[in-house]
Write a structure and sequence with these properties.
The protein is an alpha/beta fold. The protein contains 12 helices and 14 strands. The strands form 2 sheets. It has a 12-stranded parallel β-sheet. Strands 9-10 form a two-stranded antiparallel sheet. The radius of gyration is 22 Å and the shape is elongated.
Length: 341
């Protein structure tokens, strides 16, 4: 391959190509001699497990690659290879092994390597069916790992049991800055764990808990008339109330994403979070989910006032903004993202 002779290339993206096993072997041979490549993306290349073995073994001695993406490559039986790689590699900072059907047993194996790894700062393991057993293994590894800054375990069939295990670590974890556990099966009981993390953790800057389920009991929650235009106060689940109350005292989070989670009717929860922003002096991005009609029930001046006070409120709407004249005014001052369903 020409890559063997190249001495200047620093980034190579050959994703979405049918490299298969033979192509993976060619790449692995290049990695043993190529010392300038920093980023390699071979996602969705059908390298399968044998190809992954070749790639990760070549990375044992590679000292240049800092970013490696191998998502969606059918690596379900490559866990031992990835574990051994994590134990010895000294240069990789970012690893994406999402969508490889690694499962809980594979996760338990891989995470053993994370315990002793001293360089990896970003790990993506979404869509791998790791479930609660995998989440518990990750929780244990976080007790040992002191360098990981960003962790994504979204879409992994994790329930309240799994998030409780991780939450016990994250309450006092001094290292992790960004955590994504969205698109799982976490209910109102898990929401209470999130509230404890928000209240107790002093370093976490970004938390994504969107698209989780709800089974909680609802109670009234008082929201100020700064943001509400109805005589009827909203009703929140116990977990949601605890999250809102935790946001009143949190001093580290910069970004919180809570789209379509816990309540089937999201307006009350979002309304309470907006009201909490009057008291929170740290958060700079709050991403919510609102129906078009919900915007009419919130006081426009109050939201714009929050924005003027250094807040950036992201409103993820269920419908196209372009077709809603009353929303077009908001786009002048607030970052509104389209969200189509």
């Amino acid at each position: 391959m020409a890559l063997r002779r190249n001495t200047t290339l620093r980034k190579l993206d050959i994703s979405n190509n049918n490299l298969s096993y033979d192509g993976a072997v060619d790449i692995s041979e290049c990695l043993t001699v190529h010392c300038t490549l920093v980023e390699l993306n071979i996602s969705s290349c059908n390298i399968i497990c044998k190809g992954a073995v070749a790639i990760f073994k070549s990375m044992h001695s590679n000292t240049s690659i800092q970013v490696l993406s191998v998502l969606n490559n059918h690596l379900s039986t490559s866990a031992i290879t990835i574990r051994e790689f994590l134990k010895v590699n000294k240069s990789l900072l970012h690893l994406d092994i999402s969508a490889n059907n690694i499962t809980c047993e594979g996760t338990k194996t891989i995470i053993e390597g994370l315990k002793t790894n001293k360089t990896l700062t970003e790990l993506h393991m979404s869509s791998n069916h790791i479930a609660n057993k995998g989440a518990k293994a990750i929780a244990i590894a976080l007790d040992f790992n002191t360098v990981l800054l960003k962790l994504d375990i979204s879409d992994n069939k994790i329930t309240d049991e799994g998030v409780t295990a991780i939450g016990n670590n994250l309450k006092t974890n001094p290292t992790l800055l960004e955590f994504d556990i969205s698109m799982n099966n976490i209910t109102d009981e898990g929401a209470k764990v999130f509230a404890e993390i928000i209240q107790m953790n002093k370093t976490l800057q970004s938390l994504v808990i969107s698209f989780n389920s709800n089974n909680g009991k609802f109670a009234s929650y008082t929201v100020s008339d700064r943001v509400y235009k109805s005589f009827e106060q909203p009703r929140l689940s116990e977990g949601e109330i605890r999250i809102v109350e935790a946001m009143l005292v949190n001093t580290s989070l910069l970004s919180l994403k809570v789209c379509f989670c816990f309540s089937y009717t999201t307006f009350a929860f979002n309304l309470a979070l907006v009201d909490a922003m009057y008291h929170n002096n740290t958060l700079t991005r709050l991403t919510l989910s609102l129906h078009d009609s919900d915007l009419l029930r919130m006081k426009r001046n109050a939201i714009l006032d929050i924005n003027k006070k250094r807040k950036e409120l992201g409103l993820n709407c269920l419908h196209m903004i372009a077709g809603c004249p009353h929303q077009r005014d908001f786009t002048e001052d607030i970052d509104i993202h389209n969200f189509l369903i």
